[in-house]
Amino acid sequence: MKHGRFQRTIAEKLWEERMPTDIAHAERVYETARHRSAAASSPIVASWRRCMVKHHLAPEENRKPIFLSEYEFRRARESAAGLIAESTDELDRIFQSVGKSGCCLLLTDAQGVALERRGASGDDRDFRALGLWSGAVWSEESVGTNGIGTALVDERSVVVYRDQHFFTSNTELCCTTAPIRDHTGRVTGALDISTCRDDINEMTFSFVTQAVKDAAQRIEGNLFRRAFPGARIVVVPSGFGAALSLLAVDQDDLVLGATRAARLALKLDDARIAQGLPAADVLQEQRHDGGSDLAEAERSALRRVLSRTNGNVTQAASLLGISRATLHRKMKKFDVH
């Protein structure tokens, strides 16, 4: 009994030491999130407000993510078989870079279910206790503001740094997450790197953030090519920075599909694509030879990407979501140096 009382006393002491910080965090969330103007100007505060108003969560709750049953988890993986297959190499590659630095990688579906995980075995106990484990549900509804759940809701890359999390129980975490879009441009999952290391800062974490964005884009490229086997993949001009902007065209140069960035740039949707539009018409070129239009557009897009990367072929291929070999073939075909 004495030993048990001693353990309780230690737990109570640790709680008392942390309690002032937790109370201060909860009060800040309540105070900030009640102002609609703050929510309009900050994605994090907007998420806090959703957690309170929509999901009826309280920041002082000590809540961890729920876990799916074995049957539910198996069904989730079966539904996302293509996503898992096209993400495996990227997960392994990133893990080689950050896995030994106290980081955990998660691949989730569109509901925030952790389908795949990578982490050093020495960190397993800590990450499992935090819920950073296969089968956990990291939606906003489940665990409030967090990298995965908020990225899925906002459909954009996010960084949730320590006390930006909604629940006080998650304020030791740093998370950076990028959504993954399927071949129709819809969000189908997310890629996340999380850590609870004390010595990491926002500047250091920015490098991890870029790695996550690049990997998510490569996965999107994999999913796009998987959806259109045998199609010719065309790089198209886009005003959306480094976003993956690709068209899939058939042997007659009719558009079969387009990535999210290409859809936005060319004003395409499912209905227009289903019409079987000529790629040259979609690109709105002013030449008579449609084949020349398509070739010139792709040549211009390649030049722009290579210019942004100062001629670095590896970086350009990464931005385009294609292999270096494929990029070299396109450069040779279009006489781009």
From TrEMBL:
MF term (GO), any: sequence-specific DNA binding
Domain GAF: 91-219
DNA binding HTH domain location: 294-334
Domain of life: Bacteria
Name of this chain's protein: Putative transcriptional regulatory protein, Fis family
Organism phylogeny: Bacteria, Pseudomonadati, Pseudomonadota, Alphaproteobacteria, Hyphomicrobiales
